[in-house]
Amino acid sequence: MFVIMSGSSGVGKNTVIKEMQKTMHNLVLMPTYTTREKREGEVEGLPYFYISKEVFQDKIKNNEFIEYEFIHNNYYGSSYKIFDEYLQKGMILTKDIGVEGAQNLSQKMKEHTEMLKIFLSINKKSELKKRLIGRGEKNIKLRLNRYKYEQKQQNKFDFIICNIDLEATTKILKKLITVGEQDYYFKKDLHKLSPYKVKYYINKLTSGKTLKPIKIAVCDEKVCVLKDEEKLVASFLCKKPVAKMVVYKNINPDKYCNKFDL
Length: 262
Fold this sequence. Notes:
The chain is of the alpha/beta class. Helix content is 36%, strand content 23%. The longest helix has 13 residues, at 166-178.
């Protein structure tokens, strides 16, 4: 499995990955080649290999990258060789990657392994700026300029999570990595769902439309569908993904007792 982590700079993608690795020993952060400068405290290969633009461009010419992108005035790229080495060992790969690279990578590699695309967000842009200042980021304005664009891409991901609390985010992610169709619970009886709505959403999805996210809550090991049940059922039936937004809401999980079993 390959778990892609995306979102704006400063939302905490690598922090979340490191926290998950404390208990998920088969989760490996896939190293990325980059031309950006090494930050204080960073180690070569964890998670970046730092190379010059000239060397990076040579690797492009030699077709060594699954995908690469030019972002914040630097190149970032994923290596075929590294990808294959870890998958052969049966590891769960994860990677912090930009919103464009996430889509390119998932399209190229979905035939090789199961892909899961996670978009981490934050409550306010001002909070993002505070985090960037806190980590000593030099190009804050450049990174904040992409924020609005990145937020508009979130509906193209499998799950959207607002990273308010590290412990909560980590717990939710560990559940979502293993979730299957049978793990979704509905408040409504599935036989009472509108077949016309299901068909409508199937038509939208099969024609390539990106739909608004379905709201879900992760509670007591259940993934509870809060609304748009027909949209999720349509996604399962036509095998086309739709974004699921995790919301932090006090619910009674016992009221969600109808499993997806069509």
